[in-house]
Specification:
The protein contains four helices and no strands. The protein starts with about 25 loop residues before the first helix and ends in a 5-residue tail after the last helix. The chain has helices at about 30-40, 45-50, 55-60, 65-75. It has a domain at about 45-79.
Length: about 80
């Protein structure tokens, strides 16, 4: 993958993770940017669904928590 698909927009020092009580472990806007980047990539959604968590996070330049949240949102048949 020669192109960079890093998702940006998180304030410095924040990784998008939340340990608060709401069950969601990611910044909603950051997850949407990740999904948009995955959709723009030729194999992005398939890679997001099935790829090794660390490899997906590194490819798109995001924290693994955002990948997990994106996987929950797309589910097996969505997008």
């Amino acid at each position: 993958m020669s192109e960079s698909h890093a998702v940006t927009g998180l304030p410095s020092g924040q990784d998008g993770a939340s340990d608060g009580p709401g069950g969601s472990r990611g910044d909603g806007a950051a997850v949407e940017r990740l999904l948009a980047a995955a959709e723009a990539h030729p194999l992005g959604i398939d890679f997001l669904r099935t790829g090794y968590l660390g490899a997906v996070a590194a490819t798109f330049g995001v924290h693994a928590f955002l990948v997990e949240e994106a996987r929950r949102r797309i589910g097996p048949g969505a997008r």
